[in-house]
Amino acid sequence: MTEEQIIALTSELEDELQLSLDSSDLNDIKTTKRLKRHLKNGAFYLNSMIGAFDIEINLSARQYVINYARYAFYGILDEFYINYQSDLRGLQIENVEQL
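The structure assignment produced for this chain is given below.
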């Protein structure tokens, strides 16, 4: 993912989490960095599961990256893996067909 894509996803994630982060507040800066890290980890995880994808074109993959980050933010990634296991298998098939 490009830095622009990460920034856009971070903004979406902040909205979903109903966070109002202040870019001049040190704690909020740390939270933003944490969100970005979760998004990058989510993109890496999804890439390892389904293969390469374009986050701008594959909107399902985009949403899974955001959901991964949301679960990670709350410290419940185990639930993400359980809840989305079958969905990710379907996305694997869909992604292979698109390539």
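Interim note for the steering committee: The chain has four helices and no strands. The CA atoms of residues 16 and 60 lie 16 Å apart.
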